[in-house]
Amino acid sequence: MGGWQPLPQELPSEVRNFVEQLRTLKDRTGLSLVALGARTAYSKSSWQRYLNAVQPPPRQAVVALCRVAGLEDADAERHAVRWELAVQAWPRPATPPEGTERPDGDEGYEDDPTLPWWDRPEERSPSRPTGRLLLYAVLLLLVLLLVAVGGAVVLG
Q: What SS3 string covers 39-88?
């Protein structure tokens, strides 16, 4: 792993192995972090955090990287399993004392990160009031009926 900075020694083996495999996958794509971000909808800085073991990636980021790297279903599923093991072992950020903030606005990381837009389940939008649309349809029908009746009277 030529250009990668060394991972912290205190990382659990599950995390270390997982991040090393992510780095290998990323290298396999031949993409820069900027290009990887564009292809996966996760930013360059997010990928830097994930690939340097600063923060665990969301599962969907791993799925996106597998897709970009051209992994088949079984291989991608292995990475998802490794992700689960790594996230369970990932060191949690220290919690600051109550009433104090983290330095530099660092908020830690989310245990349940959000899904990217393409993997979100479809949300049902609340039904729009159809009253106005129905009113327009009835008015149009009445106008057509009046035109038809008026035409029949004139021609008859």
A: HHCCCHHHHHHHHCCCCCCCHHHHHHHHHHHCCCHHHHHHHHHHHHHHHH
Distance of CA 74 to the CA centre of its chain: 21
Q: Cα separation of 36 and 42, whole Å?
A: 8
Q: 2-9: long-range contacts at Cβ-Cβ below 8 A with a sequence spacing of 24 or more?
A: 4/51, 4/52, 5/52, 7/52, 7/53, 8/53
Regarding pTM above 0.70, the answer is no
Structural contact between residues 78 and 22, judged by C-beta atoms closer than 8 angstroms: no
Domains of the chain, earliest start first? 13-93+103-118 (1.10.260)
Distance CA 116, CA 60 (A): 7
As a whole number of angstroms, the distance between CA 22 and CA 156 comes to 82
For residue range 71-119, what is the model confidence (pLDDT) as tens digits?
A: 988 888 888 889 988 988 888 766 655 655 554 444 455 444 445 444 4
87 in Cβ contact with 56 (< 8 Å): yes
